[in-house]
Amino acid sequence: MDVRQLTPFISVSPQINVADIGLAASLGFRAIIANRPEKEGEDQPPNAELEEACRINGLDWHYLPVVSGNITGADVQAFAHLLATIQGPVLAFCRTGTRSTTLWALSEAHHLSVEAILKTASAAGYDLSAQRDRLGSAARQESTRPSAIVRHDVLIVGGGAGGQAVAASLLKRQPDLDIAIIEPNTLHYYQPGWTLVGGGVFERKDTVRNMASVMPDRVKWYQTAASLFLPEHQQVQLEDGTALGYRTLVVAAGLSLNWQGIKGLKETLGKNGVTSNYQFDLAPYTWELVQSTRCGKALFSQPPMPIKCAGAPQKAMYLSCDHWLRQGRLKDINVEFCTAGAALFGVADYVPALMKYVEKYGIQLNFQHNLIEVDGAARRALFRITAPTGEVIEEEKPFDMLHVCPPQQAPAFIRNSPLADAAGWVDVDTQTLKHKRHGDIFALGDCANSPNAKTAAAVRKQAPVVAENVLMALQGQAARAIYDGYGSCPLTVERGKIVLAEFGYGGKLLPSFPTWLLEGREPSRLSWLLKEKMLPWLYWEAMLKGREWLAAPQLLEHSPASHSSQQACDFGERK
Q1: CA-CA distance, 286 to 271, in Å (whole number)?
Q2: Which residue in the list 54, 321, 405, 489 is annotated as catalytic?
Q3: Contacts of 144 (CB under 8 A, 6+ apart)
Q4: In the chain, N or C terminus with fewer CB closer than 10 Å?
Q5: Which residue range forms the structural domain that includes residue 25?
Q6: Residue 569 appears among annotated catalytic residues
Q7: Do 273 and 211 reside in the same domain of the chain?
């Protein structure tokens, strides 16, 4: 739990969970204020569970929902009244803590100086400088669409792999460019390392750094969340109601893991033999389960596309099987791969090598098996199965270990925005990554609808393309940098060997090395060394710093026509 004190009476926090309530009670809090609306995002627990946890721990529960990006005068008055009537100390929370901090600041503006409020908020990690005018006038009414206070040449939504890589590539080309990044998180993760954490190769701490350490010094960082796109006004509205203007906008907001899309899953994650390498704090539990499992049934699930790092369920399975084989346990463990897809891998060239390991480990392949419910206490998983005839049935499978890949979707603020396509992803041209309807907007990474593998290897190639095209847009020129759909999936088939899948749009093979050095369609120790030793360094020291080795964009003489070819498969690794 990330508690940040504003005054001895009130502290704020990003989203809390049920386990945090007991910790809050032990820290001396007497009341909890929830400023985040119910079901605002997929990552939040039901309020009923939080309220019940408060009752059990002797804390008062207060629900004062505030719409992200639209803090009204009535919201401020209600918050001030609540603070005046309840017993403290109080912990208020929302998605990031920004709304709660802003409510406190505006409720105190009538008797505290603006500088004191801004300094207090800053000490807690929240930059409210954009609220200076509103605080100064002690306003109690808010426009539904405030005018932009600050306007940047390039505004980037998202400080993950895509946002940081684009910023670095832009600064490499034009160091004096005015760039800002909107990113609420304080930590930056190297997500492809989680597969190796779950396989006992990496330590979890090696896959995370402070966001401040990877944020370029010349970039303005707004440590809050974006809530609303206003493309007709060239503005993005933040969670606290502030609007930022831009000349060009880059959307690199990633995707959302929909844990609640599988009934019962969220409640049993991290216990009862249920794990997932898709979450930072669960990957070590995967390795614990692999080490402790000696017999029984192990299930590995994969949902319908699109998902990021779509090879991860297989990689978790192969590394687990390799460990069990080395320990002499595999003969006593039944392993099943249950995928909602109709094939083991979407690019046929790599299937033969993978099938050799499926046979070696004795894995049962279950195609068109979609996980829909998990009963952790009973250790049973329910799958919806589509037969070749089209008949749909449901089948329950017992398990001793279950590795789950959750369903995935674009973040809600993108799905509900004017930037989204019918499926909720940012609608871009597949070659230039420019938005199909707004020429000053670009997108890359997991949130874009380009039909490539959702991987950081793809981002490494996309970032220079976006950087070039953004600079062209700022100069009034047509976008000419081209992305070929490149993605990569280092499939860890055993400890020490990898099948290095590299491909682009339409499943076209796009190897980075000559076949005499590295044949990607066969398991290789060199590929393992590349993944274990080189790729983490390449991520932190090259990609996030604008060094574009083997990633220089192709430039056309004239603006290309929209590219409509479809990717055969969204398999890939986030590197």
Answers
A1: 10
A2: 489
A3: 70
A4: N
A5: 4-137
A6: no
A7: no
How far, in Å, CA of 454 to CA of 443, rounded? 13
Q: Could you tell me if 70 and 113 lie in one domain?
A: yes
At residue 567, the pLDDT reads: 35
Q: Give yes or no for a contact between 296 and 324, defined as CB atoms under 8 angstroms apart.
A: no
Strands 90-93 and 31-34: parallel
State the Cα–Cα distance between residues 383 and 239, nearest whole angstrom.
38
Q: Are 418 and 398 within one domain?
A: no
| Secondary structure class of 163 (helix, strand, coil) | helix
CB 525 within 8 A of CB 497: yes
Can you list the positions of beta strands (E) in 147-189? Answer: 150-157, 179-182, 187-189
**Among 76-80, 169-173, 259-263, 412-416, which stretch is predicted with the lowest mean pLDDT?**
76-80
Residue 15 lies in a domain: yes
Q: What local confidence, expressed as pLDDT, does residue 558 receive? A: 61
309 part of the active site: yes
- Do the domain assignments include residue 533? yes
Higher pLDDT, 238 or 84: 238
Q: Are residues 61 and 9 in the same domain?
A: yes
Give first-to-last CA distance, the chain, whole Å: 28
Name the amino acid, one letter, at 486.
Y
- Three-state SS across 492-558? EEECCEEEEEEECHHHCECCCCCCCCCCCCCCEHHHHHHHHHHHHHHHHHHHHHCCCCCCCCEECCC
Classify the phi-psi angles of 323: left when phi > 0, otherwise alpha if psi is within -120 to 50, otherwise beta.
alpha
Regarding whether 351 and 281 lie in a shared domain, the answer is yes
Question: In terms of domains, do 159 and 118 share one?
Answer: no
Are 522 and 416 in a shared domain? Answer: yes
Catalytic residue among 54, 309, 338, 405: 309
32 close to 59: Cβ distance less than 8 angstroms = yes
CA distances in angstroms from 550 to 512, 546, 556, listed in the order given: 8, 12, 18
pTM over 0.70: yes
Question: Of 384, 405, 426, which residue sits at a domain end?
Answer: 405
Task: Pick from 71-75, 187-191, 517-521 the range whose average pLDDT is largest.
Answer: 187-191
Q: Contact 102/241 with Cβ under 8 angstroms?
A: yes
Boundary-marking domain end, from 365, 381, 405: 405
Cis peptide before 306 (omega within 30 of 0): yes
Distance CA(277)–CA(195), nearest Å, equals 6
Q: How many domains does the chain have?
A: 3
Give me the CATH number covering residue 513: 3.50.50.60
Residue 226 and residue 155 in contact, taking contact as beta carbons nearer than 8 Å: no
Residue 244 lies in a domain: yes
- Does residue 399 sit in the same domain as residue 424? no
- 344 occurs within a structural domain: yes
pLDDT band at 43 (very low <50, low <70, confident <90, very high): confident
CATH of the domain at 50: 3.90.190.10
